[in-house]
Write a structure and sequence with these properties.
The complex is a heterodimer of chains A (about 120) and B (about 375). Chain A is α+β, with helices and mostly antiparallel strands and about 120 residues long. Chain A is built from two helices and four strands. Chain A folds into two domains: about 50 residues; about 50 residues. In chain A, strand 1 and strand 2 form a beta hairpin. In chain B, about 60% of the residues lie in helices and about 15% in strands. The longest helix of chain B is centred in the N-terminal third of the chain and has 55 residues. The chains are: A alpha+beta (about 120), B alpha/beta (about 375).
């Protein structure tokens, strides 16, 4: 549903509102009920056009899983994408580029989104 | 013009108005049930989609280990219906022993099946495959149960049945989505949130000089321990053996350690992930009294029994997580809680035990992706 249908919906809703208003304006008129019902129906159709096809929350892809490798001697830390076979506390083959010591996988994790601010009560 | 007027149009409007009232008072519930059924149907499509996709992921994972896709698919479909009958509880005496026996038997059958379908896999991978299989089975079970009540409700027109399924649907969808999203973690052997207990125990033991080589294997099924000297106390840091995905039998391990090291053990500290309440922070650390373990009963009973018989203090330190975080890839906030948990363990040991005492530190949880 594009912009055109929304404009059409808006016009329809506005037209419906006008008919409803017209119907309510003259209670002595025998057709006032008919105008009121017609106005409501046209308005409902207009709102249906306005809201139809609204995008659903698209499912976000999960955040990537990362592997955190730390040097066993100094403070060197490397974070890279998870590779199959990685596990926490696994000694890695590469040595620390800073001090040439052995390194260990200290964490395999993903960083998920924080909860919405409105949920923090 | 007003309602109740006797003009021709007024009469028509009056009839329309009362027809509307009568229609909705007689058939309102039917409309609502129809709406509920449509919503359950939409949920059911979602469950089916998750089950089919998870089945395919399981097949793709299994077929890497020596069998063709067709063979794996056939065997997996046969296994999807595997069930365990809970022991009779009319005579509750000895029920935990019987339940323990049944759970052992079930585990044996799972291991046998995985070894059959993935003949070229190793032991660690077998455990991950078992977990993958279990998740697929859970998704299949949820789908079949919801479908059962949906069809039965439709067939019998039972409003209460339809309403019950409808009311539970959001919760079931949340649970199924959590397991579905976690499937990749099990298939790839990534650590999950539930593994925080074993991780804390290993990191604690390593601080006091433990190594993978100093780990004593198989004190009970798939559970071992490090013996370390910490703050003048002997600590038996116990966890299931990783990095394959298993929870082992930690309750039986605690019992065996207590039996083995007897009166010297003065405290049991259990570390586990616990379900957080909505609004609570993920990775929040809490402590309390009792055995933190979420099994069906035998393991918790073994721990409580051992502690009670010898008058050993038993306490729990838990890390708060929701279902999705507990079965999904470990979240950074959960990993970041490790130093705080270790500090609390140290504080507990210093405050509530004396130098020369022995302490059992039990890390409870699934060890997938957590090395020794």
């Amino acid at each position: 549903m594009g912009i055109a249908s929304r404009i059409f919906g808006l016009a329809l809703a506005a037209g419906g509102f006008f008919i409803l208003w017209f119907g309510m304006g003259s209670p002595a008129d025998p057709l006032s009920y008919i105008y009121s019902f017609l106005g409501m129906i046209v308005m409902a159709m207009g709102f249906a056009f306005l809201t139809a096809g609204s995008k659903k929350d698209e499912k976000k892809p999960p955040p990537p899983t990362v592997t955190e490798i730390r040097c066993n001697s100094c403070d060197f830390k490397e974070i890279r994408d998870f590779q199959k076979g990685d596990y926490v506390l696994k000694p890695v083959e590469t040595t620390c580029p800073k001090c040439q010591s052995t390194m260990t996988i200290e964490g395999v994790y993903m960083v998920r989104e924080e909860p919405d601010e409105k949920d923090r009560i | 013009m007003q309602l109740g007027e006797t003009s021709e149009l007024g009469v028509l409007i009056n009839i329309g108005f009362f027809a509307f009232i009568i229609l909705f008072s007689l058939y309102g519930a039917k409309f609502q049930i129809w709406q509920y059924l449509k919503q359950i149907e939409a949920g059911l499509h979602e469950f089916k989609k998750m089950f089919i996709e998870s089945r395919q992921i399981a097949i793709d994972t299994f077929k890497e280990f020596g069998r063709s896709e067709e063979e794996v698919a056939k065997d997996l479909d046969r296994w999807m219906d595997y069930f365990t009958i809970m022991p009779v509880d009319l005579d509750p005496a000895g029920i935990l022993k019987r339940l323990d026996h049944l759970l052992d038997e079930r585990r044996d059958r799972f291991q046998e099946f995985v070894a059959e379908v993935a003949p070229e896999s190793n032991q660690g991978m077998n455990q991950n495959l078992e977990n993958t299989l279990e998740v697929t089975q859970v998704l299949g079970l949820i789908y079949r149960v919801v479908r059962h009540f949906y069809l039965l409700g439709k067939k019998t027109g039972s409003q209460i049945m339809i309403m019950q399924v409808h009311m539970q649907l959001p919760d079931l969808l949340r649970l199924a989505k959590a397991y579905f999203d976690a499937l990749g973690a099990f298939a790839d052997g990534k650590p999950i949130g539930d593994g925080i207990g074993p991780l804390v125990v290993t990191k604690f033991a390593r601080e006091y000089g433990a190594t993978p080589e100093s780990y004593n294997h198989e004190i009970s099924r798939e559970v071992g321990y490090y013996k370390v000297e910490a703050e003048g106390r002997t600590v038996y840091a116990m966890r299931a053996t990783g990095p394959g995905g298993t929870v082992g039998k930690p309750g039986m391990a605690v019992k065996k350690l207590v039996d083995k090291y007897g009166d010297k053990v003065t405290r049991i500290i259990t570390i586990d992930a616990a379900l957080k309440l909505e609004g609570e922070e993920l990775g929040r650390v809490s402590e309390g009294t009792g055995a933190a373990i979420g099994d069906l009963g035998p393991e918790k009973h073994a721990m409580e029994q051992s502690a009670t018989e010898r008058g050993i203090g038993i306490e729990a330190i838990v890390i708060k997580e929701d279902e999705a975080a507990a079965v999904g890839v470990m979240d950074k906030r959960i990993l970041d809680s490790v130093p705080e948990v270790i500090e609390r363990i140290k504080a507990s040991i210093l405050k509530r035990t004396k130098p020369g005492d022995s302490v059992i530190l039990a890390g409870i949880g699934n060890t997938i992706g957590i090395g020794l």
